[in-house]
Amino acid sequence: MNTELLRKYSGAVPRYTSYPTAPHFHEGIDNDTYRQWLGALNHRNRISLYLHIPYCDRLCWFCACHTKHTLRYEPIAVYLEALKQEIATIGALVSPDAVVSAVHFGGGSPTMLKPEDMVSLMDCLRRHFTFGLDPEISVEMDPNDLDDSRYDALAAVGMSRASLGVQDFDDKVQKTINRIQSFEQTKSVVDAVRARGVHSVNCDILYGLPFQTCETLKKTVDQIVSLDPDRVALFGYAHVPWMKKHQSLIPEHALPDIAERYRQMTMAGEMLKQAGYRAVGIDHFAKPADTLCQAVEARALRRNFQGYTTDTADALIGLGASSIGRLPQGYVQNMVATGEYQRIVGEGGLAVVKGIELSQEDQVRSHVIERLMCDFALDFADIDQRFGKASHSVRTQAQQFAAGNSDGVVRMEAGIFAVTERGKPFVRNIAAIFDTYLGNGRGRHSVAV
Questions:
Q1: What is the Cα–Cα distance from 394 to 434, expressed in whole angstroms?
Q2: Which pLDDT tens digit goes with each residue over 353-380?
Q3: Considering only Cβ atoms within 10 Å of each terminal Cβ, which end of the chain, N or C, has fewer?
Q4: Residue 414, burial from CB neighbour count under 10 angstroms (0-12, 13-18, 19+)
């Protein structure tokens, strides 16, 4: 890849797991607004639930999630009581005719929960929401937390998808990011969840880590492939020490430059494709029979705060401190500070502190950016049908960008604005041309490659 092209299209832009992106949420969206949005959900709506567990028994220095380190279980137990209160409060506002189709436990480390607390939490969800017949239950897992009783509890709550963060198995890389996790540990988790009937296993790999090289990453990818996961996520490490202070513990001189990050990304991607996985979007790979690949073929792939998904629910309800939800009308985000979150929900209130209501223009651009991130193309006949005259401004932007682009990263023909193979690594930057919020100075972002 041409170095000049890399520099031109790898600037810092959002990951576009939402639009508008989180830095543009504001305090104008309050609890009264959220109550109205929740109350509007009805029998025509399917919903998914995201539960945030903001605790870890170790702090990985690469992590950019909202979490905190604790070696005591007492703070977790107190937090879970508040989380159950929030579930009860929100469940009472949502019509029982709106059916839950998916639940995702994220963090932090949800697998830190005691087995009985995991079961109790799922029981609470089922008491306060109406569940469909076969909801997808996914859990982010830390191999260092797990034992037989926790595996059994996860089976009891119906876990159907296990997500394991691996990052890199190289000893030096692991020590530098404070994430010690052996291949043997990881394999034991995969074997244990499959023995309990989990039908899908996802493994996460990071490139661009300190002291990481193509050689160390190659070995990690080979080891991951030997585990035969159903999906693999290949993420670029986002170095954002201005947002996450613990990342300053990572020596910046040990981070690979843009050219090396690109080599690592392309090498790992090619290895996964040679192993029989298909590329999905910018950073996922899945077996051909996986539902992600089916969604790609049907142009039904979606993107949300968990990344690429087949979840087509009308609303994502976020539960827990810092969690973000999306409803048809817009986005909401809960209080980040766990103590204040616990006080608010303990008093029977909603913990929403900011969000954004989607204008018609936002809805058009949200759809356009999601389709670019998922399909690498925009079909303007489809967009016109969906949005009518409201889509004309983005069509004009696309035509102007395609006409003025001499780098071969996009093409426009027969009403289709398409990202070329040359342009796919830079689709975040291409999507950014449709982002009307980006230039207002709010938020700093990681590099796009």
A1: 7
A2: 999 999 999 999 999 999 999 999 999 9
A3: N
A4: exposed
Beta-carbon contacts of 234 under 8 Å, excluding residues fewer than 6 positions away, are 205, 207, 265, 268, 269, 272, 283, 284, 285
Q: At what angle do helices 115-128 and 148-156 cross, to 10 degrees?
A: 10
The CA–CA distances, whole Å, from 153 to 105, 138, 159, 319 equal: 14, 13, 9, 21
Closest CA to 342 of 79, 154, 35: 79
pLDDT digits (tens, 9 = 90+) for 181-201: 999 999 999 999 999 999 899
Contacts of 269 (CB under 8 A, 6+ apart): 234, 279, 285
Task: Quote the CA–CA distance of 265 and 88 in Å, as a whole number.
Answer: 44
Report how far residue 346's alpha carbon sits from residue 172's, in angstroms, rounded to the nearest whole number.
Answer: 44
Model pTM score? 0.93
> 402 vs 81, 89, 372, 405, 413, CA distance in Å?
53, 49, 14, 5, 10
What six digits make up the tokens of 221? Answer: 């990818």
**Those residues with Cβ within 8 angstroms of residue 414's Cβ, 6 or more apart along the chain or in another chain:** none
